[in-house]
């Protein structure tokens, strides 16, 4: 069955969703893999798994357009090429699962990217053979995912509160007369708390009871935070939700205040919470107490952007005028409800801008550093998938 593909390359995880061209517009998650690329000593690349022998790159998606490349042993690789290689691997893996090529691919990117960074990623994708692709800003993808389930009238606005492991952003988008979304305002958190800081706060609480030299797994803290009930047990120590909320309250207040500044005088129809960091009810409660509108999230808010990218790819193929408006908006619920979540939901196709010069930067006196030339063409040829991960498919 024909399908389109949406890919969200996050700092921690990369998520892929497909949307069928026949039937409903709902997108489904088909792949979740760590955003890791490893160069082995044999000169091949693996994806998503780390071997003790080799050089690993992570966090490259947010550094697209950075003049400083990644150094992986004998190779020097720009961030956009690593991102393109990961996207290519994802496409190949999904094709193996679906049995056919996608009709179109949409890849998300931070809303703050300008023509230079988008051009860099477009060029890198072409280099690895990915040509039929649309780049979609993350908040617009989140809005598209919302629009699948709820009718969004022209000229109405939505706000997007996004909190991941390593990034925070606040955005306002508007529905156009052509049933697409446009970006009204956006704030990218620079010195803002992120999901990883909340993990550290939980680890600090546990370490305070075990002793400052006690080992506390950050991965265990992240898993506990994502599944926080009345209490969690980390390293044998029970931490109640109230204790943890009290610990992170300054961070929550800071993020909500930044979101309010980004929204300005705009009165949104709803606030969409996306990213794995918003799973805790404290964020929904804090936003609900601050804004006079609905505050909404999915059961798995970290998947919202990837699913919205797949919806955007479908709109590129079939056109927004061919898609009926949702009839039932009863699935929208307030975050204070026990069920808490609902499946959230055209992005105008991004222009395939030509390569442009990077934005001007302040003059800085830096001693020149001679770097060996990149060998990306060889890396593209030797990319070696690790195979399907037993835990990569998401229900």
Features:
2 domains, 31% helix, Nucleotidyltransferase, domain 5, 23% strand, 17 strands, disordered C terminus, 395 residues, single chain, five-stranded mixed sheet, alpha/beta
What features would you describe in this structure?
InterPro entries: ATPase_NBD (IPR043129), Hsp_70_fam (IPR013126). GO terms for molecular function: ATP binding; ATP-dependent protein folding chaperone. Keywords: ATP-binding, Chaperone, Nucleotide-binding. The protein folds into 2 domains: about 5-195 and about 250-380, ATPase, nucleotide binding domain (Nucleotidyltransferase, domain 5), CATH 3.30.420; about 195-250, no CATH class. About 30% of the residues lie in helices and about 25% in strands. The chain has helices at about 80-100, 115-125, 140-145, 195-210, 220-225, 240-265, 280-290, 305-320, 375-380, and strands spanning about 5-10, 15-20, 25-35, 35-40, 45, 55-60, 70, 75, 105-110, 135, 155-165, 170-175, 180-190, 230-235, 235-240, 270-275, 295. The strands form 5 sheets. The protein has a 5-stranded mixed β-sheet with strand order 3-2-1-9-10, sandwiched between helices. Helix 3 packs across helix 8 and helix 4 packs across helix 5. The chain is globular, with a radius of gyration of 21 Å. The two termini are about 20 Å apart.
């Amino acid at each position: 069955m024909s399908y389109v593909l949406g890919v969200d390359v996050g700092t921690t995880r990369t998520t892929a969703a497909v949307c069928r061209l026949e039937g409903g517009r709902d997108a489904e998650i088909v792949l979740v893999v760590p955003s890791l690329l490893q160069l082995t000593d044999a000169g091949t690349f693996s994806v998503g798994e780390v071997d003790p022998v080799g050089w690993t790159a992570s966090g490259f998606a947010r550094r697209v357009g950075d003049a400083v490349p990644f150094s992986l042993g004998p190779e020097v690789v720009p961030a956009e090429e690593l991102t393109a290689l990961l996207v290519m691997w994802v496409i190949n893996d999904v094709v193996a699962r679906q049995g056919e090529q996608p009709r179109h691919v949409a890849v998300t990117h931070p809303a703050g990217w300008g023509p230079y960074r988008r051009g860099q990623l477009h060029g890198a994708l072409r280099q690895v053979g990915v040509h039929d692709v649309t780049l979609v800003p993350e908040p617009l993808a989140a809005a598209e995912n919302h629009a699948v389930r709820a009718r969004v009238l022209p000229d109405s606005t939505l706000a997007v509160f996004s909190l991941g492991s390593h990034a925070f952003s606040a955005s306002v988008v508007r529905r156009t007369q052509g049933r697409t979304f446009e970006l009204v305002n956006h704030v990218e958190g620079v010195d803002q708390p992120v999901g990883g800081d909340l993990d550290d706060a939980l680890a600090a609480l546990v370490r305070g009871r075990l002793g400052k030299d006690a080992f506390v797994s950050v991965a265990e803290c992240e898993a506990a935070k994502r599944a926080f009930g009345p209490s969690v047990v980390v390293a044998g120590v029970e931490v109640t939700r109230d204790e943890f909320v009290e610990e992170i309250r300054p961070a929550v207040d800071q993020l909500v205040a930044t979101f309010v500044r980004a929204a300005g005088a705009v009165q949104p129809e709803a606030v969409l919470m996306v990213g794995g960091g918003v799973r805790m009810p404290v964020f929904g409660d804090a936003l609900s107490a601050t804004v006079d509108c609905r505050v909404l999230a999915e059961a798995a808010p970290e998947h919202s952007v990837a699913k919205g990218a797949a919806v955007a790819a479908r709109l590129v193929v079939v056109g927004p005028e061919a898609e009926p408006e949702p009839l039932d908006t009863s699935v929208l619920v307030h975050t204070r409800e026990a069920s808490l979540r609902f499946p959230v939901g055209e992005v105008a196709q991004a222009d395939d801008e030509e390569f442009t010069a990077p934005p001007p930067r302040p003059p800085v006196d830096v001693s020149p550093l001679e770097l060996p030339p990149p060998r990306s063409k060889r890396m593209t040829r030797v990319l070696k998938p690790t195979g399907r991960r037993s835990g990569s498919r998401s229900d």
